[in-house]
């Protein structure tokens, strides 16, 4: 299967594209965001990496068809989990938060929580392909991101907000001028997951408090999340405050501990050779 068949995209205007993997039919299917700038272009999250994302972007002319346009293309993972980082190895420039550099450089399929089944792939990307052979390929990040770093695209800037909880290196990218928040898995319109390896509930609560603060200070109008559909500031406020209320209860803490234990055991069994 070609890259042109594997992916599909939708233009949201102003140089912003929403890309998805058509045949990865799972709740884990991540949104891929392509943002075109005047001096630099950015891909935010890269999916599984089963087909070449750069080839798709090029074949569809998403960065324009001017042969004189030579902007660098930076691929940023909002965090290291497999559904977001699997395609990073396809890019020459790769960015991730400092807390998860080693996980990517070592190809640590425990920390990337690699878990893929044949039933999630509606059509195999190549003859004989099987999910049990899938692993996140090691990649050495070229851009080690920290809280407050600014990624300059020329006509717009993205500020790195370190928002741990879902994972230790989870980040959001904030386009302050346009009040856009690329939120990764810090928040999306679904159940927020805090029971994976390297998840941390107290950090997640603090990150959600920051999200509430962004809404209260009118710094976000639209959220472009790691999964599902986009949503606005009111929904962001509701999702963040609901998580805070739920996470602080005793039953929720016990449930999180139980799920975390089970997830750790299952992932170690599924990825026995991972560095962990």
From TrEMBL:
Superkingdom: Eukaryota
Protein name per Swiss-Prot or TrEMBL: Metallo-beta-lactamase domain-containing protein
Gene3D superfamilies: Ribonuclease Z/Hydroxyacylglutathione hydrolase-like
PANTHER family for this protein: ACYL-COENZYME A THIOESTERASE MBLAC2, METALLO-BETA-LACTAMASE DOMAIN-CONTAINING
Gene name linked to the record: mblac2
Domain Metallo-beta-lactamase: 29-227
Bilayer-spanning residue ranges: none
InterPro entries per record: Metallo-B-lactamas (IPR001279), NDM-1-like (IPR050855), RibonucZ/Hydroxyglut_hydro (IPR036866)
Organism: Salarias fasciatus
